[in-house]
Amino acid sequence: MIYTYKSLLITILAILSFNFSYSQSSTLKIALLKYKGGGDWYANPTSLPNLIMFCNENLHSNIQPKCETVEAGSKDIFYFPFIHMTGHGNVIFSENEAENLRTYLISGGFLHIDDNYGLDKFARREMKKVFPELEFIELPYTHPIYNQKFNFSRGLPKIHEHDGKQAQGFGLIYEGRLVCFYTYECDLGDGWEDTDVHNDSKEKHLQALQMGANIISYCFTM
Predict the structure, then answer these.
(1) How far is CA 189 from CA 5, 7, 38, 59, 62, in A?
(2) 5-221 is classed CATH 1.20.1440.60
(3) What is the pTM of this model?
(4) pLDDT for 30-72, tens place per residue?
């Protein structure tokens, strides 16, 4: 990869920004990814606040309660070690946004993509711009992301039916590190929302939050 002056500055910022530790004394920040293309990146407004509260209570983490919003091409993305992306429709990353997102991820950042039904073909297409050399691979159920505080020996919980397919967890692995975790046919984000939004059972709501906590735990400890 040939670094421009801009991308070199971004890399330096990334190295400085990722000097954090996963502990009670550290205030961590996570963010929702805003993207272009017309898709509803803002879906599930109660999901991340609920997940943060669950993690702070059950993992004893110290994540800032307010969830920020960050754009794919912004330098501010480097202040958030964990980025969540969701939606139902089209996603478009410009060349600069794809380069910025790539630099973020290879510098230590982590992206969780949650298909909220209809995102799949767009997310896969645009992530190919970010990592043209990589393919999404399905993670085995023995992967550490399924075995943090909460054990999911059969992989992702199935929160919403959608097409009735099995829930699957895919990953992009760069130089041996999982940089992007993609939850498909699962709908964790809907499960994180207030239960009266989708009329989810308490059991499904808890399963979704527990799996979300595993993802957060994996991001900040691996």
Answers:
(1) 37, 32, 19, 19, 21
(2) no
(3) 0.89
(4) 999 999 999 999 999 999 999 999 999 999 999 999 999 999 9
